[in-house]
Amino acid sequence: MKYIEPHAHMVSRTTDDYERMALAGCAAVCEPAFWAGFDRSSPAGFYDYFRQLTEHEPKRAAKFGIQHFSWLCINSKEAEDVKLAEEVIALVPQFLDRPNVLGIGEIGLNKNSRNELRVLEMQVELAAKFNQLILVHTPHLEDKLKGTRLILDVLKNDKRIRPERVIIDHVEEHTVEMVLDCGMWAGMTLYPETKCTPARAIDILETYGSENIWMNSACDWGVSDPLAVPRTALEMKKRGHLAKAIEQVIFQNPKKFLGQSPNFKLGK
Ligand SMILES: [Zn+2]
Q1: How far apart are CA 259 and CA 132, in angstroms?
Q2: Model's pTM, two decimal places?
């Protein structure tokens, strides 16, 4: 079964993971810039990370027949230091014309702090200025509802941002509706421990439909599963979803959203 993994942190994964994803039918993987599991000490750390995402990782993926795309930004977990954030944001434009770059992401909020919000606004400005797609990380657990509301307000208040060019990731039962209602796309993250389990994700699809929704593993350096998308597809099949409906969620939907970037071209 062919699928697109629209959100994975492959710099933290092994070549074995790439091989298993290829065997499971992964055609393309998209990697948003995120926290490395530790705070970087300088903008130079981000400069090298952006080079890794745009130069090295596409070559690593290509060895397994997988296309690799990336998103660039400073993540919300390292956005508390506004001066650092300004310096990192200033590095981003020189990478935007690299052939695998899809947009600005994953920006958003982590603890919903004032500084995070300020950095979020700076990066929405960056996306608007360079006409880039936006991928948003929403906070976890008790911070999610409030954080999602704050993020949607920032995006809706900027009239240059077209909602269909924004995906709000890590939605759950209590946030998916407000995202879809304002015309943005919603991403469900399939995590073995926190976030959505496959069963919960399928419940959400059955409740809200599969228009403008995708699923991702968001696999990284923590407890996560790079095969979460095909595993959930199998679960959908067991629950009686038709092959065409499964294909829409795991392939056609991400292709449609990401295809809004001129850099997202799938090979034959
Ligand atoms: Zn992520």
Answers
A1: 12
A2: 0.97
